[in-house]
Amino acid sequence: MLDLAKIQSIAQSYSPQELFAALVWQRRFNQFNGEEVIAGLCAHNDLWASFLFTKPIFAPDEDCLSFIGVIDTLLAMANYRPMPETSIIHFVAYPADTLYILTENQDTKVSQLLDLGKKWRADSVEVSDSTNEDYGLRLKRRLRTRLEAALRGEDFSQVSDAVVVTYWWD
């Protein structure tokens, strides 16, 4: 199960972003190639502030699809066992299929991230901000509050608005 000493060592050695990068790196399915995506993100560090690789999050979520995605992730993590490549038994890898990237609300950065989606062969690429028509008024207000002046510069005196670019692979 869990090795506390190993976890402590990993936690002291890696940032949460590096841990998610490792999950993306391991993933390969259909048109998605995790190594290619991470190489692209590393080559374009200036375009993004953070990213999260997970199952899709829906709003509104009347059919509980977001929660089912969380359950799928929990089950895959519970049942995962490292196996050699030569083994005929293979367990489900981290079941993410959606990459969320937080970036500054600048046309040039967003445009380049959209181009990366084409290069990575994403089935869908969307930009989300507080003006998205799919969101209700209450959610739009919450998003606006979160995304306006959300990103801080190195010295925290500079602030900029943010958007989320979402990539999905079928």
Please describe what this structure looks like.
- About 40% of the residues lie in helices and about 20% in strands.
- It contains 6 helices and 8 strands, in the order ααββαβαβαβαβββ.
- It has helices at about 5-15, 15-25, 35-45, 65-80, 105-120, 135-145, and strands at about 30, 30-35, 50-55, 100-105, 125-130, 150, 160, 160-170.
- α2 (about 15-25) crosses α3.
- The mean pLDDT is about 80.
Question: Can you tag this structure with a few keywords?
Answer:
two-stranded antiparallel sheet, alpha+beta
* CA-based shape: globular
Spatial arrangement of strands, main beta sheet: 3-4-8-5
Task: Identify low-pLDDT runs.
Answer: none
What is the mean pLDDT? 80
How many discrete domains?
Answer: 1
Report the radius of gyration as a whole number of Å. Answer: 18 Å
Q: How far apart are the first and last residues' alpha carbons, in Å?
A: 31 Å
Strand content: 15-25%
Q: Topology, pairings included?
A:
Elements: H1 4-13, H2 16-26, E1 28-29, E2 32-33, H3 34-43, E3 50-54, H4 65-79, E4 98-104, H5 107-119, E5 124-128, H6 137-147, E6 151-152, E7 159-160, E8 162-168
Antiparallel strand pairs: 1-2, 3-4, 4-8, 5-8, 6-7
Helix pairs in contact: 2-3
What's the short version?
The chain has 170 residues and is of the alpha+beta class. 41% of the residues lie in helices and 19% in strands. It has one domain (4-168).
